[in-house]
Amino acid sequence: MEAPVNIGISEGDRKSIVEGLSRLLADTYTLYLKTHNFHWNVTGPMFQSLHTLFETQYTELALAVDAIAERIRTLGYPAPGSYSEYAELSSIAETRGVPEATDMIRLLVEANEAVVRTARAAFPNAEKANDESTVDLLVERMSIHEKAAWMLRSML
């Protein structure tokens, strides 16, 4: 049995924050998988630049899922970690098959923007509870995904 969490945030507030972070984790992991898939399967005249960009992005996402999951654990809850949980929690649809390169870019723009919306939706509960650590994580994630969407959108 774990010791109780006593970090100045009530149980109810921690639970509501974790619900938002769990959705963010699911979206981030789904985006990670989609980006990694596209890295493996991209073809065409933009192959080299997209292959490299997608690798940079999925590498950053791999670190992000760890940070989000560890924040959930810090708040005293188990982090979701199965495909079935992610499918239930994520706002990002799976992409089956191999889209054309420009469709990959468009799909990743949409998915990065979805992660921003999910992070933004989690923000009020963290802010209300004065959970500056989660607020900081959410602001960082929003900034990273807004920039990723802009960079990808610039290629369309």
UniProtKB/TrEMBL annotation:
<dbReference type="InterPro" id="IPR009078">
    <property type="entry name" value="Ferritin-like_SF"/>
</dbReference>
<dbReference type="InterPro" id="IPR008331">
    <property type="entry name" value="Ferritin_DPS_dom"/>
</dbReference>
<dbReference type="InterPro" id="IPR012347">
    <property type="entry name" value="Ferritin-like"/>
</dbReference>
<dbReference type="InterPro" id="IPR002177">
    <property type="entry name" value="DPS_DNA-bd"/>
</dbReference>
<dbReference type="InterPro" id="IPR023188">
    <property type="entry name" value="DPS_DNA-bd_CS"/>
</dbReference>
<dbReference type="Pfam" id="PF00210">
    <property type="entry name" value="Ferritin"/>
</dbReference>
<feature type="domain" description="Ferritin/DPS">
    <location>
        <begin position="19"/>
        <end position="156"/>
    </location>
</feature>
<comment type="similarity">
    <text>Belongs to the Dps family.</text>
</comment>
<protein>
    <submittedName>
        <fullName>DNA starvation/stationary phase protection protein</fullName>
    </submittedName>
</protein>
